C-alpha cells in the first residue's frame, strides 16, 4: 500500500482504483458560508465541492425541490443535569459554532421547524453517554441540533442514525474552555437512505474534542465536519471508519481551520470498499491562518479495496499562512487486498476466509478502539463481520 506526504494532482492507482490529490485549498468553496440558501448557486457538479457527488441521487436536496414531508423518530437519553430543549431559529445559541458551507446545509437551516439544544453544565463530568437516536421513517426531513458543552465539563455523545429518509441537517458542537468532548456519529442507514450533514465544531480555549464518524449504510452519505478554535491551546482529533458497499456513495469532507495559536489537530480516516460501483470520497482540508502560530497538525487517509469495481477519491489539502508552526503534514494511501498478507497467515495454519477477516479487522482495529463506548464498539464489530461475510462468503 503506497503512501505519500505530497501527492500530485490526478494521480491514479490504475484498474478499479482512482486516487486524486491536490496541493492547495484555494478553491475549497464556491461561496462563503451563509445561513441564506439564496447565497449559494444550484450546483451542477462542476464545482470543486460537488465534483465527486452524484447530484441526481440527492433527491432534490441540492436544488430546492426536496420538500419536508417525511418523518423521523428522535430520542434523546441523558444523565441527570443535562438540559434538553426544543427551540425556534431565533434562539441566540443557534449558529454560534459556524454557518452552513454549501447549499444543502443552507437548505437544511432554512427548512427546519424546531432545533434541539442539548446543554451540559459547566464542570459536569458525565459517567454515562448522552445518546441521540434518529430513525428515519420515510420522506424528506430536515434538522438542526446544538450541543452546548459547559467549561471544564467532560462528555461522551453518541449519535445513531438508522432507518430510511432523505435528510439534510446541521449539527453544532459548542465546546467550552477546558472541556473534554468525545462524539461518536454512526451512520447505519437502510440502503435507500440519503443523508447530508454538516458538523460545526467550535473548540474553546484548552478544550479537547475527539470525533469518531462511522459510516456503513445509505445510498448516498455526505458528511462535512468543520472545526475552528475559539482560543489557544485547543485540540481536535478526528477519526473516521467507513465500509462502502456495492453501489454506495460515501463522502467525508473535512475542514480544520486553525484560527488560534498553539492548537493541535490530528485526522485519521480509514475505509474499505467492495462491490461494483462502490465509491468513497475523502477530502481533508487543513488551513493554518497567519495568527495560528505554534500549530501542530497531521491528516491521514487510508483505503483498502477488497474487490474489483470500486473507486476511491482521496484528496488531502494543506494551506499554511505562517511559518511559525510545530509541524504540519498529510498522507493518503489506497491499495488492493494483498495476497502476501494472506499467504503469511495461511502458512501458519489459518484458513483463507479467516485470514481475510483478520487482515481487515486489523486494518480497522485502531479506529474502533477510539470509540470508547463498549456497546457501540461491539455493534460495529458485528456489523463489520457481516460486511466481511458478504464479501468473503
UniProtKB/TrEMBL annotation:
This is Fe-S cluster assembly protein SufD. It comes from the Bacteria. Residues 136-363 form the SUF system FeS cluster assembly SufBD core domain. Belongs to the iron-sulfur cluster assembly SufBD family. InterPro entries: Fe-S_cluster_assembly_SufBD, SUF_FeS_clus_asmbl_SufBD_core, SUF_FeS_clus_asmbl_SufBD_sf, SUF_FeS_clus_asmbl_SufD. Pfam families: SUFBD_core (PF01458). It comes from Streptomyces litchfieldiae.
Amino acid at each position: 500500500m503506497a503512501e505519500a506526504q505530497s501527492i500530485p494532482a490526478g494521480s491514479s492507482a490504475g484498474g478499479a482504483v482512482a486516487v486524486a490529490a491536490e496541493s492547495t485549498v484555494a478553491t475549497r468553496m464556491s461561496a462563503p458560508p451563509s445561513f441564506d440558501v439564496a447565497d449559494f448557486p444550484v450546483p451542477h457538479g462542476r464545482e470543486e465541492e460537488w465534483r465527486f457527488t452524484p447530484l441526481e441521487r440527492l433527491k432534490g436536496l441540492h436544488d430546492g425541490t426536496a420538500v419536508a414531508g417525511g418523518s423521523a423518530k428522535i430520542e434523546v437519553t441523558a444523565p441527570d443535569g443535562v438540559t434538553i430543549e426544543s427551540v425556534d431559529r431565533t434562539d441566540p445559541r443557534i449558529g454560534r459554532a459556524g454557518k452552513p458551507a454549501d447549499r444543502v446545509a443552507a437548505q437544511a437551516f432554512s427548512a427546519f421547524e424546531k432545533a434541539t439544544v442539548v446543554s451540559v453544565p459547566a464542570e459536569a463530568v458525565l459517567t454515562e453517554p448522552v445518546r441521540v437516536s434518529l430513525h428515519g421513517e420515510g420522506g424528506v426531513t430536515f434538522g438542526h441540533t446544538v450541543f452546548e458543552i459547559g467549561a471544564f465539563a467532560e462528555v461522551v455523545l453518541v449519535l445513531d442514525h438508522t432507518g430510511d429518509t432523505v435528510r439534510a441537517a446541521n449539527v453544532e458542537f459548542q465546546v467550552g474552555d477546558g472541556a473534554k468532548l468525545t462524539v461518536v456519529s454512526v451512520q447505519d442507514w437502510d440502503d435507500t437512505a440519503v443523508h447530508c450533514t454538516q458538523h460545526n465544531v467550535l473548540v474553546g480555549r484548552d478544550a479537547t474534542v475527539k470525533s469518531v464518524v462511522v459510516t456503513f449504510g445509505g445510498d448516498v452519505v455526505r458528511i462535512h465536519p468543520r472545526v475552528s478554535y475559539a482560543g489557544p491551546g485547543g485540540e481536535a482529533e478526528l477519526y473516521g471508519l467507513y465500509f462502502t458497499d456495492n453501489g454506495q456513495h460515501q463522502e467525508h469532507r473535512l475542514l480544520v481551520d486553525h484560527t488560534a495559536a498553539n492548537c493541535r489537530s490530528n485526522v485519521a480516516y480509514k475505509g474499505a470498499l467492495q462491490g461494483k460501483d462502490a465509491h468513497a470520497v475523502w477530502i481533508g482540508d487543513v488551513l493554518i491562518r497567519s495568527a495560528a502560530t505554534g500549530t501542530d497538525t497531521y491528516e491521514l487517509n487510508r483505503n483498502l479495496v477488497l474487490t474489483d469495481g470500486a473507486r476511491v477519491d482521496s484528496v488531502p489539502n494543506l494551506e499554511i499562512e505562517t511559518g511559525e508552526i510545530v509541524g504540519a503534514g498529510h498522507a493518503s494511501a489506497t491499495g488492493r487486498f494483498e495476497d502476501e498478507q494472506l499467504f503469511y497467515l495461511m502458512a501458519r495454519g489459518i484458513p483463507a476466509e479467516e485470514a481475510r477477516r483478520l487482515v481487515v479487522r486489523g486494518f480497522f482495529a485502531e479506529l474502533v478502539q477510539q470509540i470508547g463506548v463498549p456497546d457501540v464498539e461491539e455493534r460495529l464489530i458485528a456489523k463489520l463481520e457481516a460486511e466481511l461475510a458478504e464479501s468473503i462468503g
